[in-house]
Amino acid sequence: MTHTVHGQKSLLARVRRIKGQADALERLIEAGQDLDCGKVLQQIAAIRGAVAGLMAEVLEGHLREHVAAENLTTEQRHEEIEEVVAVLRTYLK
Amino acid sequence: MTHTVHGQKSLLARVRRIKGQADALERLIEAGQDLDCGKVLQQIAAIRGAVAGLMAEVLEGHLREHVAAENLTTEQRHEEIEEVVAVLRTYLK
Amino acid sequence: MTHTVHGQKSLLARVRRIKGQADALERLIEAGQDLDCGKVLQQIAAIRGAVAGLMAEVLEGHLREHVAAENLTTEQRHEEIEEVVAVLRTYLK
Amino acid sequence: MTHTVHGQKSLLARVRRIKGQADALERLIEAGQDLDCGKVLQQIAAIRGAVAGLMAEVLEGHLREHVAAENLTTEQRHEEIEEVVAVLRTYLK
């Protein structure tokens, strides 16, 4: 299934932001003895939020562009749906 | 969109279990001064898990029976998908 | 550990609201053939949000009133904390 | 508040694993036209799980080593607790 170039740019920007946040978290933890738990907790929560935003964008794009695509056989459509179900199960525990 | 009778029975059983859990939680909290926080926290976590299970069953059924239904127009399919997207957004915050 | 009467009233109001939401969900599902998936999904998401709000209120009260209580032995304080850890693990999967 | 050296090593290992997962995700998305949605969704779900594990380890350590520390004034203990409450609110929405 192909994705639009615009979609790709937006996803890459989100992933690179997460990588930057993880770098900053690594430096916070490397502070060792002077580790500030409050800041570490906030940084992890920020990464969690960024990952949730990335998941939402990919899932919505997958549902609208692939699951709803007109030229699919019923079998193909069910395959696309099972990819969504597999991810939903990681959230709905 | 119609649901199978089997699906309905399973969903009703889940909802009634949640109602029973909420009744038990109410009684725990009514204990007032002797309220056991540990038990209350566990009971709320149990209800949360039951609600997640219910959501998973309805979402999966909706995706497989409605979104993937063969006799839909593209517009109808997008409408069904937007119902999924609306729920996903409550989880992906 | 004792809870304030005010806290108890607020918690009971939240639980009763969840019970009311579950009743409404039961009626939606009992509609059988004419079951409206969109409304059912929204109602479950609303219950999930109400349960999250209830959990937040109990957890915060437990942390502030019990875990932070001045007259605890270290052992008692660790017991109170382990109740929080047990609940956190149901969320942090 | 100081953290044990052992704790620091474990946290750094987790963060570096997340960075590696984010690198792999970036390469998946850079595939552009041949982007495999299923693999991207799985990879994001894996990162989400790793971030949850990291959050659990830091929160539990903070609760047991800082919130429960014996030599705290009541005011200091409440400050440590408010850091936990701030993070819980990002989860309990």
From TrEMBL, chains A, B, C, D:
MF-aspect GO terms: DNA binding; metal ion binding
UniProt-listed GO biological process terms: negative regulation of DNA-templated transcription
Superkingdom assignment: Bacteria
Pfam family, one: Trns_repr_metal
Stored InterPro entries: Metal_Tscrpt_repr, Metal_Tscrpt_repr_sf
Family: Belongs to the FrmR/RcnR family.
Full protein name: Metal/formaldehyde-sensitive transcriptional repressor
Source organism of this protein record: Pelomonas aquatica
